[in-house]
Backbone:
């Protein structure tokens, strides 16, 4: 398990309570590399069988957050640290001393799982609004935007969010610099808000964690819960967390490669058309006729197409507003069900 093998990184810092900035940044980048790997795995399953596994890709962020919450809760409760922190031989300690209390655990859990999820959703929303402004700005008139309160809020969000994002990144950079020059005990404002700091594990901490692991394995078949539903749920959550932990421990050395593979420099790979099989031909009815769409009608709205746009994953042509809104909401082709993204839309400029 991670809590046994990864403490090699702290072998030479047993007497130093404060971890180095390299250990701190390494543990942060560890979990950052997991999210794109999980999303890619769900995308492969969705491409193989869209009807059965398409929901995994559509709700990937929610599923990942749920599993991450189980994992982090188990490690905070058992080892007083997140999974990545424990992997690098670190622990969380209250700034004023003492043991890590329940309130510290709840704050840490919210900052480790809920806040990154919200930020990820806000980033996606901002990118979507930017694309809508660039691609559909000429379609939606200013008069219609003025009549919609939601459009006003979206426009205000598009203006304000870059400054909020810049302020957050500046705060992170400020805390890291103060941590490097020993002006602060926190490398992140989230640790400051949670009232905890990161410390290196001592030899006593490692022995205690090893004894906890031995005790958990010896009590794995026990009946101490006595059929209590809450106890069974807790045991199931702990089992899920341990299973995820072991899976990450095995594949952790491949995460840096995955992080590079799905980085911004390789967006051309992510934007490429998926290698999906060709959509099946229309089913021929008993009377010998085959259902087909009128060549000038949008399959979504059923009206004559405007601003023709093709979906590269399936080859079908739609109205741009219709297919944009559908793909943005459902992340699939409305006809074939293939997983699709806004990047797969191709505008067509037909000759008059």
Residues:
């Amino acid at each position: 398990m991670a809590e046994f093998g990864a403490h090699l990184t702290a072998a030479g810092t047993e007497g130093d309570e404060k971890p180095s900035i390299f250990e701190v940044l390494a543990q942060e980048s560890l979990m950052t590399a997991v999210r794109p790997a999980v999303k890619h795995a769900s995308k492969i399953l969705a491409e193989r069988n869209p009807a059965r596994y398409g929901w995994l890709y559509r709700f990937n962020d929610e599923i990942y957050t749920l599993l991450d919450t189980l994992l982090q809760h188990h490690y905070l409760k058992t080892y007083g640290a997140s999974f990545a922190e424990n992997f690098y031989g670190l622990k969380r300690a209250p700034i004023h001393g003492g043991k890590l209390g329940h309130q510290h655990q709840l704050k840490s859990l919210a900052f480790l799982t809920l806040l990154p999820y919200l930020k990820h959703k806000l980033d996606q929303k901002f990118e979507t609004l930017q694309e809508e402004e660039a691609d559909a700005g000429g379609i939606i008139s200013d008069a219609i935007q003025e009549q919609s309160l939601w459009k006003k809020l979206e426009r205000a969000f598009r203006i304000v969010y870059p400054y909020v994002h810049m302020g957050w990144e500046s705060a992170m950079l400020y805390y890291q610099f103060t941590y490097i020059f020993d002006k602060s005990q926190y490398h992140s404002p989230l640790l400051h808000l949670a009232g905890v700091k990161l410390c290196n594990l001592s030899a006593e901490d490692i022995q205690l964690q090893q004894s906890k692991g031995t005790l958990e394995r010896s009590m794995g078949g026990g009946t101490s819960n006595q059929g209590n539903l809450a106890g069974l749920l807790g045991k199931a959550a702990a089992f899920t967390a341990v299973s995820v932990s072991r899976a990450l421990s095995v594949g952790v050395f491949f995460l840096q490669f995955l992080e590079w593979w799905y980085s911004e420099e390789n967006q051309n790979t992510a934007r490429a058309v998926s290698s999906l099989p060709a959509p099946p031909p229309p089913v021929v009815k008993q009377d010998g006729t085959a259902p087909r769409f009128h060549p000038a009608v949008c399959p979504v709205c059923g009206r004559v197409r405007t601003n023709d746009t093709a979906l590269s994953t399936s080859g079908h042509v739609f109205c741009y507003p219709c297919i944009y809104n559908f793909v943005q909401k459902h992340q699939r082709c409305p006809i074939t069900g293939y997983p699709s993204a806004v990047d797969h839309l191709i505008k067509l400029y037909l000759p008059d």
